[in-house]
UniProtKB/TrEMBL annotation, chains A, B:
<dbReference type="InterPro" id="IPR015422">
    <property type="entry name" value="PyrdxlP-dep_Trfase_small"/>
</dbReference>
<comment type="pathway">
    <text>Photosynthesis; C4 acid pathway.</text>
</comment>
<dbReference type="Pfam" id="PF00155">
    <property type="entry name" value="Aminotran_1_2"/>
</dbReference>
<dbReference type="InterPro" id="IPR045088">
    <property type="entry name" value="ALAT1/2-like"/>
</dbReference>
<dbReference type="InterPro" id="IPR015421">
    <property type="entry name" value="PyrdxlP-dep_Trfase_major"/>
</dbReference>
<comment type="subunit">
    <text>Homodimer.</text>
</comment>
<dbReference type="GO" id="GO:0030170">
    <property type="term" value="F:pyridoxal phosphate binding"/>
</dbReference>
<dbReference type="GO" id="GO:0004021">
    <property type="term" value="F:L-alanine:2-oxoglutarate aminotransferase activity"/>
</dbReference>
<dbReference type="InterPro" id="IPR015424">
    <property type="entry name" value="PyrdxlP-dep_Trfase"/>
</dbReference>
<comment type="similarity">
    <text>Belongs to the class-I pyridoxal-phosphate-dependent aminotransferase family. Alanine aminotransferase subfamily.</text>
</comment>
<keyword id="KW-0808">Transferase</keyword>
<protein>
    <recommendedName>
        <fullName>alanine transaminase</fullName>
        <ecNumber>2.6.1.2</ecNumber>
    </recommendedName>
</protein>
<dbReference type="InterPro" id="IPR004839">
    <property type="entry name" value="Aminotransferase_I/II_large"/>
</dbReference>
<feature type="domain" description="Aminotransferase class I/classII large">
    <location>
        <begin position="148"/>
        <end position="504"/>
    </location>
</feature>
<keyword id="KW-0663">Pyridoxal phosphate</keyword>
<keyword id="KW-0032">Aminotransferase</keyword>
<comment type="pathway">
    <text>Amino-acid degradation; L-alanine degradation via transaminase pathway; pyruvate from L-alanine: step 1/1.</text>
</comment>
Length: 525, 525
């Protein structure tokens, strides 16, 4: 029997229920919002307490920046203040897909264009020719010409600058071989706000459900919680390389319906996060058919579209798949999320991305536009970068060779690192780890000894969190416990990025092996 | 008798109510979410319709990018495709505080630093010395040294880069002469996401109310609608230069309480948007006292803090005022919003800003941090820019003189433009216009002839929207009808920015006068 288990959920839900109970009892009278404190009262209750905030906020959690990261930051401060205070020299943040924090260098061409667009006054100067490549200068001019008044400091259209959307649509067409419409593109500050926007549109109450993979990227559980909906889990099958089975989708959909939940959308993350699987075309076609048949919006998280590491798998967008099945915009409602934070570029700090929204009526599109307009527009540098990643230098451009070398260097190194770490995990006693076919993570399963589980429970900690804390304290390596992503009850995992630089991998593997052996020895049954 | 009237609200609320009725009746069975469409059905109902989206989205509206802007964009396309098709050469967007869209130039020093941080590879190159000022190069190095690994492409701490928060806190201290803590700063993609974050925290249901000025900046009404709360209006007094009276706050608070509303926070916009008033210190002290006494969070929109145009008024932050009254963090919960989009810099497209959050307990701060962490971080260029506007060049720095000249040029020109436009409006028949003491807008009142009101009603349009549409069609000038901001029932206004460049003002004034005279002649009673 499978059950959705997320660490700390129970305690949070308890607090949540407590807060709900409080807010419907006379105890609420303690809240100063409904009680005018006398002016003489020197210490009235504060206007905002855990009991009086929005319970949806309380319920939301986000593991990849959770407790373990706070602990890691504390250890880092201790190391800085007192070198040698821990058995490691540095904290290795393998908790989050943040490549440049682990020394991945940005793509030079992209940064040249961004710098020139930030300070166009130098475009005409002779020194600029010596500092920047000719095609970066040309591209900057092209982009500036697409911006009304060349004003990179002005709010743009709320969907993003039209010329940049044209470029992105052309990039999608080149990728998919099917038409893309710039009016379907909404540029956003990374993929996260785009996901929130769709959840906000779809979720009316906790009777509305969103089908999400388990394990999932916790943005989805967090966003559904914040918007007051219900996460309807479907389990990926670890035994078949985290396969996505339609029978499981059907079963969970029916189970949700029987509980009175209206399921509105299906989230698919491809390549998978945290699982790293790349879906086959056949599987994608089944998924499209399922959404069409069941009247579900397909929310396709395709932010790792450039991150595929195995020769027998290839990324196909869900739009391409559905169009190749003969389904047009009238047949299926589909949102594809893309981000500048992932791929080979890894420009997380730029907060750029877009969603391509197809298969919605004009009046719904107007509502999405309205919500986008309340935040005016996404940041222009992120918009420019999104256009660059969808239209990088081409053969013959001055920057092409250096660009291609940078890109291939990063992607082939990521593939090597994924393989090395996967093999290392599989060599650990009681650990099994699927291949990272794509994305930026491995999600090994640890078969923990019963004594370790008991030791964890004695400290009121999920066993995988217990393991991750011990790992951090012993090695400085930060991984995220599987309970933050959801996992089959009684199984334990952690997510580890493949992002540390290659020259650091041997030391990481060795620290990991030593730690794991010591841990298993300590808790061996 | 005053009443809160917002244009189009009625029709939207009608649609909203219709959708609520629908969603609680058997008609919902038409929705495919609860009905598995047979595979043979070639045209099943779409998964998302106006009847099945989140009614809060439907209810939300945002006037500054509303219908009139869509119309203006259409006219602009027509002008481009067919020059001479309208009685004007260009559209003048006076609907939104977007200075660089109207040719305001960015501050050179800020853009130099941003460009260097975007492409640090050039910092060491000799050509760079010729292209960039020495202090911009030095500042870029300082900023890079504050970023772990100098990685401007990495996600930062979810509150923003610590070193930049240190700089901002120091800037606040220099401004206020009271301590500021970098741990109280949350860097955000402009002020709008910060406002949403606080609304999300505070609003549990429509029984939670937020006191907002009328007229207000429609971000507040939009955000409250999206989060499902109730806007509790308090009316600024046009007769006393849009004065904020405590008696009015009290009256509206009591009225809300008597309807079962728990009022959680008071929004104050200072300098005012759309009204342009700058609050006096005495008035601010009364407001602080009121919030303290009533247990309200004070949400202080201080994004126009640099935009004060009259010698007898000065901006004081609410934090400074409350600290000077002897109130510390334990006494009052206060959030101050700041943005890089306004001031003399007007860097709207960069989406930078921060909120300074004081007077909340550690566990509430943890919740705010958690919500911030779900979006990972705000964009790094915006973060850098927020640190720059709070710590611009100082006397003695190489850039100081040119920086000061740019800044003073913009601010003194804005003051002149405000005065010229204010006088022009006051010369129009039946128009009265308060002084823009600060911010970027004038909010003239138009006393419309009865025949114009009837003509508007005949086309199902609010009279001020009717006027604004006529103005746009005749002159290409885009203003926002007062009904988008809220106004006393039976009064009509529009908001017009003071942002067109000085050399354009005479032509604008002349077009405005001609149009207005024609309009009044046409509809004179």
């Amino acid at each position: 029997m499978r059950r959705f288990v997320v660490g700390r959920t129970k305690s949070l839900v308890n607090r949540y229920q407590r807060s709900r109970v409080l807010s419907s009892t006379p105890l609420l009278l303690d809240s100063p919002s409904s009680m005018a404190a006398p002016p003489s009262s020197s210490h009235p209750s504060p206007p905002v307490t855990l009991e009086t905030i929005n319970p949806k906020v309380l319920k939301c959690e986000y593991a990849v920046r959770g407790v373990i990261v706070t602990l890691a930051e504390r250890l880092q401060h201790e190391l800085q203040a007192n070198p040698g205070s821990h058995p490691f020299d540095e904290i290795l943040y393998c908790n989050i897909g943040n490549p440049q924090s682990l020394c991945q260098q940005p793509i030079t061409f992209f940064r040249e264009v961004l710098a020139l667009c930030d300070h166009p006054a130098i475009l005409d100067r002779s020194e600029t020719q010596g500092l920047f490549s000719a095609d970066a200068i040309e591209r900057a001019w092209q982009i500036l010409d697409q911006i009304p008044g060349r004003a990179t400091g002005a709010y743009s259209h709320s969907q993003g600058i039209k010329g940049l959307r044209d470029t992105i649509a052309a990039g999608i067409e080149a990728r998919d071989d099917f038409p893309a419409d710039p009016n379907d593109i909404f540029l956003t500050d990374g993929a996260s706000p785009a996901v929130h926007m769709m959840m906000q549109l779809l979720i009316r109450s906790e009777q509305d459900g969103i089908l999400c993979p388990i394990p999932q990227y916790p943005l989805y559980s967090a966003s559904i919680a914040l918007h007051g909906g219900t996460l309807v889990p479907y389990y990926l099958d670890e035994a078949t390389g985290w396969g996505l089975e339609i029978s499981e989708l059907k079963e969970q959909l029916e189970a949700a319906k029987s509980k009175g939940i209206t399921v509105r959308a299906l989230v698919v993350i491809n390549p998978g996060n945290p699982t790293g699987q790349v879906l086959s075309e056949d599987n994608q076609r089944e998924i499209v058919e399922f959404c069409k048949k069941e009247g579900l919006v397909l929310l396709a998280d395709e932010v790792y579209q450039e991150n595929v590491y195995v020769p027998d798998k290839k990324f196909h967008s869900f739009k391409k798949i559905s169009r190749s099945m003969g389904y047009g915009g009238d047949d299926i409602s589909l949102v594809s999320f893309q981000s500048v934070s992932k791929g080979y570029y890894g420009e997380c700090g730029k907060r750029g991305g877009y969603m391509e929204v197809t298969g919605f009526s004009a009046d719904i599109r107007e509502q999405i536009y309205k919500v986008a307009s309340v935040n005016l527009c996404s940041n222009i540098s992120g918009q420019i970068l999104a256009s660059l990643v969808m239209n990088p230098p081409k053969v013959g451009d001055e920057s092409y060779e250096s660009y291609a070398a940078e890109k291939d260097g990063i992607l082939s190194s990521l593939a090597k690192r994924a393989k090395t770490l996967e093999e290392a995990f599989n060599h650990l006693e009681g650990v099994t780890c699927n291949k990272a076919e794509g994305a930026m993570y491995l999600f090994p399963r640890i078969h923990l000894p019963q004594k370790a589980i008991e030791a964890a429970e004695a400290t009121n900690t999920a066993p995988d969190a217990f393991y991750a804390h011990r790992l951090l304290h012993a090695t400085g390596i930060v991984v995220v416990p599987g309970s933050g992503f959801g996992q089959v009850l009684g199984t334990w995992h952690f997510r580890c990025t493949i992002l540390p630089q290659e020259d650091k991998i041997p030391a990481i593997v060795s620290r990991l092996m030593d730690f794991h052996k010591g841990f298993m020895d300590e808790f061996r049954d």
